[in-house]
Please model this.
Amino acid sequence: MSVQKQYPKCLALLGSTGSVGTQTLDCVRMHPNEFKVLALTAQNNIDLLEKQAREFSVETVGIANLEKAEEFRRRVKGKIHVEEGLEGILKICAYEEADTVLNALVGNIGLRPTLHAMKHKKNVALANKETMVSGGELVMEAARRNKVHLVPIDSEHSAIFQCLNGENKGEISKIILTCSGGPFRGKKLNELKGVTKEQALNHPTWKMGGKITIDSATLMNKGFEVVEAMWLYGVEPERIEVVVHPQSLIHSMVEFVDASIIAQLGTHDMRTPIQYALTYPRRMKCPATRLNLLEAKQFTFEKPDMETFQCLARGYEAARRKGTTATAINAVNDECVGAFLDGKIEFLDIQRTIQKVAEKNRHVTHPVLEDILNADEWARRETRKELGIELSIPVR
Ligand code: MG
Model:
């Protein structure tokens, strides 16, 4: 593909009002001649969505919440085209003029848009890790079949992607996934009883959305990242090592067969991996903050405590089994984190429930989309039964 054809990039940005979405627009703002935003989508936050649509002269928006979509239509009086619900988001993924879909949706809802975008020959910049956790095999197959790029935005996976640039995957000896350890690093199981939402949301290094911050406190996030790395790079979980690196400045590493280790470093600024996913294989000036090694001073490493943080062990198990076990764990976790943030369950109930419900999952090794959606729905219902609570969000 010629450079002229590659640039400017025409983007559809899914989840524009969230943490990754707003940082994506920082990168777009810096390079108005390189990127054109064709469509934006949001769940509920139509105030910010309207502001973004006006600033970037976006002609189409997608709004997942139907009532909010109606309200938005009334506000803009036909000046901006509005698509609604999941079907509307899927239509945006198929937009003829878009060459890249940046998926920054939160949760399993992101899987169908990823597959739909690939089916319509769009490159996908992927921040929605549930897509890979829940449907990794399907997504990799769709990327291959449609000959599109899939570039991860997750900082660890972007780091690995960068370390592997120009390398032969057959020469990887292992992937070293770094992990901050979260706010409860060093604590034992009995010290985690009764920890509060505020304590769990107080991440030591990264500023992220609520769901992923809780996942970082339980280490479920790292467990998911093992699954994600396995699918993205075709490396078995036995060769994916999680190392706690509290400074979070080395975003991950790859060790090769010749014993050489390549690492990618940077500050805790998601705009580097976001922008790289959009400019790959090029690099461009970025609004991200720069790492000062003299200020950073030291890098330390520890072994993760999988007896206390059992979600990491669940992630490894899911990676070993492949198929719908990861889908089920992801869905149980989603429900539990929602319940924890609503103050309905304790922090340790998250890992306890994941263990209990996921173990009953009817495992399908090579699932089709329907199997994944069924496993997701089953796990959500079981979780609600187990917790004895009704959550506000619908199952599907
Ligand atoms: Mg990450």
